[in-house]
């Protein structure tokens, strides 16, 4: 059996019963299960639909996300999440660059790297070099004034942890950001790159080896082995090309508001929902979400 999940933006809550019923009838599905009226619904179906992506495209035009996955093993025991533009709304290096007066230049490099047009490691070294001389405490200013948390992140982490899950934040960004972000969101651990500092200023370099695409895969392997979990029990989420390795290895790899070239390689794509969509994908009902301050 498979489960087709339809999800609307939780701010609009405009998933209409007739929309769900049309898809159920087209795919001769079983009875609809509403996970959250107006926002998310499940339909049990017997086979993977041949016209999945046609239906997906039609629903996208309505502002509705659609995901189809095996019914067995939907609920995962580990969350492996990217940070920049996933758990937070910004790319931290772009925000640092804005403080250094080179924001547009660095942002253009970041966009190309996240779209897979540039090698991640080389692009990171190039961008970090442009930060040389910034006072190290600028990180605190950027955290306080420029960084926002993606909607639903704390609920996602808290709900999975309340159901015996483990949460790891793996970022191609910097520990100066990932550590406070992970603490606030409730992650069990975090991994990221180390910005080098000399005499109280950014040195324009990052410690080697750089945590990029392969290091995120290594994190998946190492953490699951340590916890005694199968990779099929992992839900990974990200938006950039350096996330593709872990997205493809995890039991569920979700492209969240991802770059087009990244989304094209993932079968689970969220373009309209927030991070709570990852709970609906696992079959959680809205009343199972853990409330957080």
Structural write-up:
With 293 residues, this protein is α/β, with parallel strands linked by helices. It has two domains: 1-72, ACT domain (Alpha-Beta Plaits, 2-Layer Sandwich), CATH 3.30.70.260; 76-293, HAD superfamily/HAD-like (Rossmann fold), CATH 3.40.50.1000. 37% of the residues lie in helices and 23% in strands. The chain is built from twelve helices and twelve strands. It has helices at 17-26, 52-60, 92-100, 103-114, 120-129, 138-145, 153-162, 175-185, 213-227, 244-249, 260-263, 277-281; strands spanning 2-8, 32-36, 40-45, 64-70, 78-81, 166-174, 189-193, 195-198, 201-206, 234-238, 252-256, 268-270. The strands form three sheets. The protein has a six-stranded parallel beta sheet, sandwiched between helices. A hairpin with a 2-residue loop joins strand 8 and strand 9. Helix 3 (92-100) runs antiparallel to helix 4 (103-114) and helix 4 runs antiparallel to helix 5. 47% of the residues are buried. The model has no long low-confidence stretch (mean pLDDT 96).
Main beta sheet: strand number and arrangement? 6 strands, parallel
CATH class designation of the largest domain: Alpha Beta
Report the order of strands and helices: EHEEHEEHHHHHEHEEEHEHEHEH
Beta content comes to 15-25%
Topology:
Layout: E1 2-8, H1 17-26, E2 32-36, E3 40-45, H2 52-60, E4 64-70, E5 78-81, H3 92-100, H4 103-114, H5 120-129, H6 138-145, H7 153-162, E6 166-174, H8 175-185, E7 189-193, E8 195-198, E9 201-206, H9 213-227, E10 234-238, H10 244-249, E11 252-256, H11 260-263, E12 268-270, H12 277-281
Parallel strand pairs: 5-6, 5-10, 6-7, 10-11, 11-12
Antiparallel strand pairs: 1-3, 1-4, 2-3, 8-9
Helix pairs in contact: 3-4, 4-5
């Amino acid at each position: 059996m498979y489960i087709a999940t339809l999800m609307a933006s939780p701010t609009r809550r405009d998933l209409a019963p007739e929309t769900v019923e049309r898809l159920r009838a087209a795919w001769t599905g079983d009875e609809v299960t509403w996970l959250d009226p107006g926002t998310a619904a499940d339909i049990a179906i017997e086979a993977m639909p041949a016209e999945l992506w046609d239906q997906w495209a039609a629903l996208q035009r309505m502002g509705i996300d659609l995901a189809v996955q095996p019914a067995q093993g939907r609920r995962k025991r580990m969350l492996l999440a990217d940070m920049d533009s996933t758990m937070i709304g910004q790319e931290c290096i772009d925000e640092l660059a804005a403080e250094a007066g080179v924001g547009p230049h660095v942002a253009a490099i970041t966009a190309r790297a996240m779209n897979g047009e540039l090698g991640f490691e080389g692009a990171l070294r190039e961008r970090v070099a442009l930060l040389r001389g910034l006072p190290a405490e600028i990180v605190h200013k950027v955290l306080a004034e420029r960084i926002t948390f993606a909607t639903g992140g704390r609920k996602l982490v808290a709900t999975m942890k309340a159901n015996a899950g483990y949460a790891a934040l793996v970022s191609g960004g910097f520990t100066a950001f990932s550590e406070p972000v992970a603490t606030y969101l409730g992650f069990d651990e975090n991994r990221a790159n180390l910005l080098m500092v000399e005499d109280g200023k950014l040195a324009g370099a990052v410690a080697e080896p750089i945590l990029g695409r392969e290091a995120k895969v290594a994190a998946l392997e190492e953490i699951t082995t340590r916890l005694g979990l199968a990779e099929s029990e992992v839900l990974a989420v990200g938006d950039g090309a350096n996330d593709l390795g872990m997205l493809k290895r995890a039991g569920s790899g979700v492209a969240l508001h991802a770059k087009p070239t990244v989304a094209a390689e993932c079968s689970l794509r969220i373009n309209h929902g927030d991070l709570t969509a990852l709970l609906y994908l696992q079959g959680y009902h809205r009343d199972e979400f853990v409330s957080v301050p």
